[in-house]
Amino acid sequence: MPATSPVPQGTIGKAVATALTPQTEDQAILAAIRQMQLLSETDLQAVLQRSHQHGIAEQLLQEGVLTDLQIVQLRSQVRGWHFVDLENTTVEASLLSLFPLPFLEAQKLVPFGGSQSTLKIACQDPDRRSVLRLMQKKCGRPLQPFLATERAIFAALSHFDQNMEQVSATLLAKHAASSKDQENDRSIIELVDALILHAVRANASDIHVEPWEYEACVRERIDGILHRHLTFSRDIHALVTARIKILSKLAIDDHNAPQDGKLQYRTSDGQQVDVRVSTTPTTHGEKIVLRLLVSQGHAIPLESLGLNGDALALVDSEIRSAWGMILVTGPTGSGKTTSQYALLRKMNREEVNIATIEDPVEYDLPGVNQIQVNEKAGLTFSTGLRSIVRQDPNIILVGEIRDLETAGICINAAMTGHLVLSTLHTNDAATAVPRLFDMNVEPFLVSSTVNLIVGQRLVRKICMRCRESIPLESAPHAPMIKQLLSKHPAAKGSLSLYHGRGCELCHNTGYIGRLGIFEVLKVTDPIRDLIMKRENATMIRDEAIKNGMRTMVEDGLEKVLEGVTTIDEVLRVMRS
Predict the structure, then answer these.
(1) Taking a C-beta distance cutoff of 8 angstroms, is the pair 449, 325 a contact?
(2) How far is it, in rounded angstroms, from Cα 437 to Cα 434?
(3) Residue 570: is it exposed, middle or buried by C-beta count within 10 angstroms (0-12/13-18/19+)?
(4) Cβ contacts of residue 184 below 8 Å, gap of 6+?
(5) What's the whole-model pTM score?
(6) 3-class SS at 521?
(7) Closest by CA position to 105, among listed 150, 166, 73, 139
(8) Pairing state of beta strands 204-211 and 285-294?
(9) Which member of 308, 313, 448, 573 has the greatest number of CB atoms within 10 A?
């Protein structure tokens, strides 16, 4: 069964006692996994051998074998608890107002429904009866606890957090009334904290603080799209810029040169976020961009990324190779690093030595030796890679191949018994080959080392809460869609497509979250012959399609027909 499939309900009896110890709960989860055949016995035994530091459920989650949703479903069944998929459940704002938001965040609780006689509560542990009794006393009605994922709980709470405009207005009013000790102005400190916290809760990847002619603007990049959510005066912009520079240890008196720094931020629930800070002078002042990196997190299975079918089987086969090179390609922001980490998690075993050289190290991977590029100290991709190959590695991850020197060391490592993973900035999988030629890598080296090339983009997913179907005839770009779908095997008879109507959960965009569309090019003997002849990307792509490769556009159309995304999204990212 695929890792993204929901766990079947009702297969475990509800009479199971809730007073299970962690060890007995693990045994019950193991029995459920075997009963439902979620994993083969061989794979399950391999995970068990590596779970001496964690429980089996945590190990399955860390390795990306099962998703957090599947783990919670399993726990609810073996414990006999109710379960709620909170991400696809309407949460009424009036119910959240019954309790202080900091209390709900600290206790990881979400009131999400019920009646006059009962209140439904989503939580991580329905056995926390003292907390539930306290809530029951406050709201004056019995509570019915439901198990939910931590991610869904915080996502639900974040959508009903205070509006950033209200928060900023309050803080700026405090600033106006405060003393003129601007360097230590508490309201500016709180405003910068609020900006970062809001972005973390909104799952933003970047914060842009931009000076304009008469005011300054704050925008967040959410699911790849920038959204403006705050403006303030140029005077406040100068104070916010100074505060961010202090936090990231940058020169606050240098306004004419670009600077790069970093800071760490910890949320109230203990989540650590590493923030990369970049400043650059513009005609109206310094612009600051903050890149948010969650330094620790659970693995994302390849299936959850959007890789499935024959493409998934091909990748799964190649990562078991003893040597060679796997390249992941795409433009900036297409999810290449996330895909690499998903691959590493599947390859991470005690019997292999894995080393990485990255800029930056975006996620901590337990059991993996990760090296951060530091050009000021002379630690570049090439110098770090030279050091890694002397560390007896089995698998090497290079964050990006940027030049001939790095490419040459990667190829040499791949030829001498190492499996190398890296990325290239190209538009599709086939273009990676001429890109290596442009770096003056010899064709015979490319053909003899590169095993697999994965091309990818990220598309926004339709919000499942407000998703609705529309007839193909009334869909935007209907003639183009019909032409694109004309050769698709699933495009038979009358078709309906889907879009998001827009709701409070998705901020009226109709989209929430992202997943990948992929193409996986296996370097076969005919393709090696084309590489040796220095044939162009079109020839290589045509040969790969002849051998069964599904292009990114075709993979995107498949996801459109499944109702996961829209044709507009596929066309948007393929034009980038």
Answers:
(1) yes
(2) 5
(3) buried
(4) none
(5) 0.75
(6) strand
(7) 150
(8) antiparallel
(9) 573
| Cα–Cα dist 247/181, whole Å | 18
Residue that has been written with the tokens 């999810």 in this structure: 335
Report the candidate in 545, 116, 71 with the shortest Cα–Cα distance to residue 299. 71
Query: Closest by alpha carbon to 408, among 382, 434, 426?
Result: 382
Q: Which position has the token pair 């290596």?
A: 436
Contact call for residues 70 and 151 (beta carbons, < 8 A): no
Q: Tokens standing for 402? A: 């940027």
Cα 515 versus chain centre, distance: 8
Estimate the share of the chain in helix, then strand, then coil, as percent rounded to the nearest 5: 40, 25, 35
- The strand order across the sheet containing 225-233 reads 225-233, 215-222, 204-211, 285-294, 272-282, 259-266
Is 294 exposed, middle or buried (CB count within 10 Å of its CB: 0-12, 13-18, 19+)? middle
Q: Convert 397-435 to b/e letters by CB count within 10 Å (16 or more is b).
A: bbbbbbeebbbbbbbebbeeebbbbbbbbbbbbbbbbbb
Provide the β-strand partners of residue 462. Answer: 511
Phi/psi at 142 (5° precision): -60, 150
CA distance 144 to 132: 9
Digitized pLDDT (tens) for each residue of the chain, 576 residues in all: 334 444 444 333 333 334 566 678 888 888 888 888 777 787 777 777 777 666 777 777 776 677 788 888 888 888 888 999 887 777 777 787 788 877 888 888 999 887 778 899 999 888 888 888 888 888 888 888 999 988 888 777 776 665 666 777 777 777 777 655 555 578 888 889 889 988 887 888 999 999 999 999 999 998 889 998 889 899 899 999 999 999 999 999 999 999 999 898 887 666 788 899 999 999 999 999 999 986 555 557 777 788 988 999 999 999 988 899 999 999 988 989 889 988 988 888 888 999 999 887 877 787 899 999 888 888 988 899 999 999 999 999 998 998 899 999 999 999 989 999 999 999 999 999 999 999 999 999 999 999 999 999 999 999 887 888 887 776 666 676 767 666 665 555 556 788 898 887 777 889 988 999 999 999 999 999 999 999 999 999 999 999 999 999 999 988 988 889 998 899 899 886
Q: Which CATH number fits domain 302-459+513-552: 3.30.360.10, 3.30.450.40, 3.20.20.70, 3.40.50.300?
A: 3.40.50.300
Q: Which fold has domain 164-294?
A: Beta-Lactamase (3.30.450)
What residues contact residue 83 under an 8 Å CB cut-off, 6+ apart? 9, 72, 73, 76, 77, 146, 147, 148
Which tokens sit at 293? 């990196």
Classify domain 86-158 at the CATH class level.
alpha beta
Q: 241: number of CA atoms within 13 Å, CB side?
A: 26
CA 413, CA 503: separation in Å to the nearest integer?
51
Contacts of 317 by beta carbon, 8 Å cutoff, 6+ apart: none
CA 209 to CA 360: how far, in whole Å? Answer: 22
- The DSSP H or E segment spanning 311 is helix 309-318
Closest CA to 3 of 348, 320, 315, 307: 307
